[in-house]
Amino acid sequence: MDKRIDGLLDKYPAAVFKNRKQHLAEIMEGEPTTISANTRTIPGIITNRGCCYAGCKGVVLGPLRDAVVLTHGPIGCGYYTWGTRRNKGKSEPGEKNFLSYCFSTDLQEGDIVFGGEKKLRRAIEDIMDIFSPSTIFICSTCPVGLIGDDIHAVARWAKETWGITCVAFSCEGYKGVSQSGGHHIANNGLITHVIGTGDKAVGKYAINLLGEYNIGGDSFEIERLLKGIGYDIVSVMTGNGTVEAMASAHKAQLNLVQCHRSINYIGEMMKEKYGTDWLKVNFIGVRSTIKSLRMWQNTLAIRN
Ligand code: SF4
Fold first, then answer.
1. Model confidence over 80-106: pLDDT tens digits?
2. How many whole angstroms from 270 Cα to the centroid of ligand 1?
């Protein structure tokens, strides 16, 4: 038997172990330990990577301060994409900030059998009564996809009833190979329903930061630096960001793309739709930051 898994057989249920044996290893003294990581997510089984829902709700939508991101599903899905995230967000005085709340419909067995739409509508009514947000994003989880609740109809109902921005994301965990599918679903929803709906006046050197999620607070420092130099940061997608600012993102002159993998195609889409140029940047470390600043200042100087 493979030495890596010898001794682990008794500790895990057979079904889990069969699917996960390449991801488990006992650390042997003096021997290198390797595990397999690049494999498809299996919903409901502790996994070696994020699911599609985690990419949509946890990574892209979760950091937006002024949006209530409502998980339609079991409480565990909501909890683990909230309590384990390290995105920070500072609000301006008078602004709402929902980052410290975990919103979930907490689906139970009865809802799975008889349908969960009623519970979703009730949750939205409660949210409007208690928090009165201007934006609600609904994210669906594996069980919701399986029972077929129409979250998009509920989003339309909320929009008509309260006149708020309400968008549903069909980001069930089992969709796609990993959380990357969820990034796409979230970004596509934002470009369709949010970007282009605002009309905020922007300054002379107006930029967006794309793919910057303010993990541990890095965006605070990047924003401080760029504002100090004289750039007007119209919006950040999505760390320490707001839906309100993102609505006017189309008015910026340049998109700076930090996390290439999760969002470069949005740079392309905005180039096509609004003519906004985009550049890949890297703010990790002083040298990379200097290189990025020198690279794009020429671009903006030409356009102004
Ligand atoms: S959405 Fe599915 S895969 Fe993702 S955490 Fe919930 S049950 Fe697990």
1. 888 777 778 888 888 999 999 999 999
2. 31
Verify cis geometry, omega within 30 degrees of 0, for the bond prior to 238. Answer: yes
303, pLDDT greater than 60: no
C-alpha span between 255 and 253 (Å, rounded): 7
CA-atom Rg of the chain in angstroms: 21
17: Cβ contacts below 8 Å, ≥ 6 apart? 8, 9, 24
Ligand 1 pocket residue status of 55, Cβ below 6 Å: no
- Contact criterion met (CB below 8 Å) for 138 and 107: no
**Nearest atom, ligand 1, residue 50 CA:** 4
300/199 Cα distance (integer angstroms):
21
**Pocket flag, ligand 1, residue 151 (CB < 6 Å):** no
Model confidence at 1, pLDDT cuts 50, 70, 90, reads very low
pTM of the predicted structure, to 2 decimals = 0.86
Q: Is 165 helix (H, G, I), strand (E, B) or coil?
A: strand
CA distance 158 to 151: 11
Burial of 180 (C-beta count, 10 Å sphere; 0-12/13-18/19+): middle
Q: Determine whether 294 is an active site residue.
A: no
The candidate with the shortest Cα–Cα distance to 212, out of 2, 59, 27, 9, is 59
Determine whether 102 is an active site residue.
Answer: no
Q: Could you tell me which of 87, 48, 41 has the C-alpha nearest to residue 67?
A: 87
d(CA 146, CA 174): 10
Can you tell me which atom of ligand 1 is nearest the CA of 54?
4
Alpha helices in 106-259 (DSSP H): 109-114, 117-130, 142-147, 151-162, 180-193, 218-229, 243-246
CA–CA gap between residue 67 and residue 133 (Å, rounded): 7
Task: Kindly state if the Cβ of 165 falls inside 6 Å of ligand 1.
Answer: no
- Residue 132 reports pLDDT greater than 90: yes
Based on the residue annotation, tell me whether 65 is a catalytic residue of this protein.
Answer: no
